[in-house]
Amino acid sequence: MVEERFQMALKAVEDNDSELANQIIKTDYEIDEVEVEIEEECLKVLALHQPVAVDLRFLVAVIKINNDLERIGDQAVNIAERVGVTAKFEPIDNFFDYSSMGEKVQAMLKMSLDALINLDMDTAYKVATLDDEVDDIKSEAYDRIKQAIQENPDKVGYLINLLLISRHLERLADHTENIAEEIIYLVEGEIVRHMKQE
Q1: What is the pTM of this model?
Q2: What is the domain range of residue 81?
Q3: N or C: less crowded end of the chain, CB within 10 Å?
C-alpha cells in the first residue's frame, strides 16, 4: 500500500496532477489504520508470549519498520500537498526533473522491503549507498531552486513548493534507510544507526 501511494505521488509530480494528489491525501487514513493494527498485534504478542532473543528482536524491528512505513505514507501525502500548490502555477519548462531522484527513492523502498522479506543483509546495506545519491540530488535541487528564485521572483511560491518536494523525497529515502538498518539489527543483533556520522 505504501509503495503504491509513493508511486502515485511520483506520478502526480511528473504530471503536475492535482486530482491524483488529492486521491493520495484522501486515502492516507488507510495506511494509518493498518499501522495501528500491526502495532496492536505486536503488543499483544509481547504481552501474551513474552518473547526473548531473536523473537523479541523481530517484534522490535517490526514495530519500528511499521512506524517508518507509516511515515513514508505521510511523506507521499506531503508530496501530494505540494503538487496541489504547484498545479496552480504555470510550470517553468525543463526546470528540474525529479524522475531520477524518485527512481532512486523508489528503488530504495523496494530494496528495503525485499531485504525484510528475504532477511537479505547485502541488499539492506546497499540501501545506504543509494541514500547518499539522493542527498546529492537534493543538494542540486536546492542550488537550482535558489538560483531560480532570484531569476523568477514572481514564482517564489511555486519554486518553494518544488524545493519542499525534494525535501520530502529525501526524508522518504531516510525512512527507507531506517528500515534497512532495522533489518541489519534483526539479522545481526547490531544497531547500525548513526554509524555514518562517526
Answers
A1: 0.91
A2: 2-197
A3: C
